[in-house]
Every structure is written in structure tokens, then in C-alpha cells.
Amino acid sequence: MGATDILQVEQRDEDGTAVLQLRGDLDISTAGLVPESVAQMVREGHTKIVVDLRGVELIDSVGVRALLHVRRRLWRKDGAAAFVCAEEPTGRVLRVMGLYTVLECTDDFDAALARVRG
After folding, report:
1. N or C: which end of the chain has fewer CB within 10 A?
2. Dihedral angle, C-alpha 66, 76, 95, 89, nearest 10 °
């Protein structure tokens, strides 16, 4: 079983805004897929990306680190990242780690789109 069997990563366009949608487990075995996907999106010219985590069923510290990497990479490109997550499990983990506000997470997809567009 490979990383892509555990975490599905989908890239799509939402009315001109890049979206990276994750489903499954974002952990030590799969976290590398996230920065790879964002790097590809940046190479394609996207610097404003919404990362949709509502389908993530498990997240560990390495997964959280991958999200921080996304934020930093886009910030360095004068871009923006917005993170959408459900309260469980991703929102709870990010709150416990003190990163929910730092990553400017929301449970509202449209609010995340507006944030990166604004």
C-alpha cells in the first residue's frame, strides 16, 4: 500500500483559484505529497491556494509540519494559503497545537476562497 492509497490529493480550479483537496490520513507516510503538490502548483503559476482538509481523517505532527511548509512557501512567493478544516480531527489537533489561528483556518470553504482572493 502506497502513500497515494492512504491520502488522496486532488488539484482543481475553483473559479480561478487553485484548490488542493486532501482525503485520508495526513501523517508521516503521506505528508510529503502535500509540499510536492504545492510545488507543482507554484511551478504552474499558482501563488494563492486553498487547502481543503475537511476530508482528512487523521493528522499527525508531520502532517501539521507539511501545512506549515505550504504556508511558508506561498508566503515567500508573495502568495497566500487558506486552510479549510472540520472541527474533528484536523481542527482539534491544530487548536491543541496553537496553530489554528496561525494558519488562519476556517470551516467555511467560501470564506477561505475570499481570504486568498482578497
Report:
1. N
2. -40
